[in-house]
Amino acid sequence: MPVPAFPPLPPGFLDRLSSILGPRNLLTGGDATAPFLTDERRLFPGAAAAVACPGSTAEVSALVRACREAGVPIVPQGGNTGLVGGASAPAGSLLVNLRRMNRIRGVDPANATLTAEAGTVLATVQEAARDAGRLFPLSLASEGSAQIGGLLATNAGGINVLRHGNMRDLTLGIEAVMPDGRVLHGLGGLRKDNTGYDLRHLLIGSEGTLAILTAAVLRLSPLPRQRVTALVAVSGAAQALALLDLLRDRAGEALVAFEFMVQATVAMLVEAGHGFPVDPALPAFVLFDLTSADPEAPLAAQAEAILARAFDGGIVLDGTIGASEGQNRAMWDLRERLPEVQKHFGPSIKHDIAVAVSRIPDFLSRAGAACAAAMPGCRIVPFGHLGDGNLHYNLSPPDGMAPADFLARQGDINRIVHDIVHDLGGSISAEHGVGLMKRAELARYKDPVALDAMRAIKAALDPANLMNPGKLLP
Amino acid sequence: MPVPAFPPLPPGFLDRLSSILGPRNLLTGGDATAPFLTDERRLFPGAAAAVACPGSTAEVSALVRACREAGVPIVPQGGNTGLVGGASAPAGSLLVNLRRMNRIRGVDPANATLTAEAGTVLATVQEAARDAGRLFPLSLASEGSAQIGGLLATNAGGINVLRHGNMRDLTLGIEAVMPDGRVLHGLGGLRKDNTGYDLRHLLIGSEGTLAILTAAVLRLSPLPRQRVTALVAVSGAAQALALLDLLRDRAGEALVAFEFMVQATVAMLVEAGHGFPVDPALPAFVLFDLTSADPEAPLAAQAEAILARAFDGGIVLDGTIGASEGQNRAMWDLRERLPEVQKHFGPSIKHDIAVAVSRIPDFLSRAGAACAAAMPGCRIVPFGHLGDGNLHYNLSPPDGMAPADFLARQGDINRIVHDIVHDLGGSISAEHGVGLMKRAELARYKDPVALDAMRAIKAALDPANLMNPGKLLP
């Protein structure tokens, strides 16, 4: 995908940066910069001449001022695990990688918060919370390398959104460097603050186009002392929703995650040699977690009673409850392997869609019929966060189709799927963001009133258009 | 407090409005407009010549276009229960009251959402949710008259924020009429949507200065089937926080509300003739709720075990658990009577502050000492949402002080309290908003970088400055 280029860096600019950061923290030359210019999917190669690694908010501020004076575009980058090219740095831009800002500034157990710098890796935050007897509930595949700044910039989701919300819901406040280099201070750790526009929520999810996020106050939850994981078979998405309803109604606040897979998805696991603890020939499957902070809550008995009821009501066809934390983890491991296992079956055409939870069955039947008609024999392998109305709606090629022929159809298939999503009032990017990949799609599907408001805000806060230009906004 | 005036309405303007709305829905003349021009506290009298009552989003849109063409400022209004003058309509402005837009557009149990128009009264939404076997958890004193639009515009809080969040956390999407009259559509009911800046969160809490909210998709929770209410005595705020910690740790997701009062607050209840079920001579009190969706969860036993532990640990001095829903309600009734009871003791000087929960004890001791020094003998009667770090820090006059003398000190006392809040990184408006009342305070305390960003956004989205001008932004 083409990444736009900007004019070359002005003379003396790198010397100025070097004096701000120290020469060790300004990377130049192909070997040093290459890891930062290659994205997770290898779709959006960067070409920036330099990577700046500031070590403090003051350094970020000085660096932004220098870029502003020199007219150099800035591309902020976290763990570089994004999937849509949001952190790809074109020629003529400066890539600002936050990894040196990786301190946990403090844990406040009584406030149930943790303050972390933007470059802190998610797993490090999870661990620090656990050490303080608390849970930081955001959990996703890249948690070993994704950083807080990137997770904020893309409002990351993952498997526990159903109960705990996504990154914005888990953030009480932010610190950020604005496009003019001034620092926005918002780390008071407040749960309530009605003193004007919520700039925190405006910057979260703005993909680096409005500011560089430098730190955040994150909300911690009680540490669960029990978990019940169940994998059950259902006859389809409508029955999965009936189970979701039953679980919400009876287990309420204990329901943390509710994932969905169909037979074709599980068939890939089985063909790839993985064992599956429920009859894989059944039509669809749900994996869910109940947790409780109370070590004595009768959680397993509750899960069994709910499932018995669901079985009697014809909602659930078969199922198993993990008898140990090891079994629980093994079931989640199957779920987490799906993206990797799909690679054994050739290239993928992927979608990251959301609709109202109640519309998922309609979406699946319409999209399934349309994709099968457009590409007979393709493997449609949706999976994902049904409890949030969010599915990774992925396709693999029909037997015998050449990878290039399959990928040549990506645009058509995207159009078919996204048109249906749009018709159902849904989102074409539920959790991955827009970046470079979905800018053109955004122009097509996003409410034009919203787009105009976004453009007006961008122009107001970043009049020189130096913050991650060319991303997100079509 | 002075409310600025604008130029008189241009000739023919009211006729145009009348043709949009129908003459019955355009109120003019003192008798018809008076109820809309008198605010809850009778501090911010309005003087608008007309009150427009649109019945649909299309009418709001037409009305905004008419105002824009005529250059007439618009003041949106909901249930007119606000405390800071945010809905006061000066001379020369048009008051737009949304009460006719009071339809519940739909309930989607599978998506756990309800779509309501801006003029729907909160109690009506609560009832519709209950009828669908769900809970809409926002709860506050004015719920019988406060409307969804106003609750959104001020990001209302209340007693259940600890578990369920405030209004913005309970809102999945909004519909709004922008300052140019176009309609922003956002009622897809999505739990995940990462396609650009979060305009929902920008408009929520913007107090009518950026758009007129016309409808919202609200998030419903499982209906609680059990509630345990406890009123306990503690030796101070630090011990109350230790109890909060224990409850969060053991009861986790079951803890819904956690309210705090001190001896002086309870003394007013007793002096006013109310019974109090715990020794009122003890230093401080906590009222909390545990709830569960599971009718069989051993919630009462859990509460007893936690309180026994807290008693053994010296955290709790005395206490009672409601033996029936009637007793539970009676305890909450005492809490809810506090604002009214305080009126028996003369005028009040009020504050609506938030700090990090962990800083509440420090705030209370510093503010208590400073207020006592500034006004010896004054009654300091804080109460409120300790679990959110939010207290209504109220003062009543010393015995024998004339009301006027007391109120003449309001500015000094505000300064003392707000300076301490600011020093602790807190907020001078936790849940009531800014409106007219706290604009000057905002200029003093708000991060200037945030203020500049707010002003830039306001100018970008409402360049003619017609949406509730003179409110919120200093």
Automatic annotation (TrEMBL), chains A, B:
Keywords, ordered alphabetically: FAD, Flavoprotein
SUPFAM superfamilies: FAD-binding/transporter-associated domain-like (SSF56176), FAD-linked oxidases, C-terminal domain (SSF55103)
Name of this chain's protein: FAD-binding oxidoreductase
Pfam families in the cross-refs: FAD-oxidase_C (PF02913), FAD_binding_4 (PF01565)
Keyword hit for Flavoprotein: yes
Family: Belongs to the FAD-binding oxidoreductase/transferase type 4 family.
Superkingdom per UniProt: Bacteria
InterPro entries: FAD-bd_oxidored_4_C, FAD-bd_PCMH, FAD-bd_PCMH-like_sf, FAD-bd_PCMH_sub1, FAD-bd_PCMH_sub2, FAD-linked_Oxase-like_C, FAD-oxidored/transferase_4, Oxid_FAD_bind_N
Domain FAD-binding PCMH-type, first and last residues per copy: 44-223
Gene3D superfamilies linked: 3.30.465.10, 3.30.70.2190, 3.30.70.2740, Uridine Diphospho-n-acetylenolpyruvylglucosamine Reductase, domain 2 (3.30.43.10), Vanillyl-alcohol Oxidase, Chain A, domain 4 (1.10.45.10)
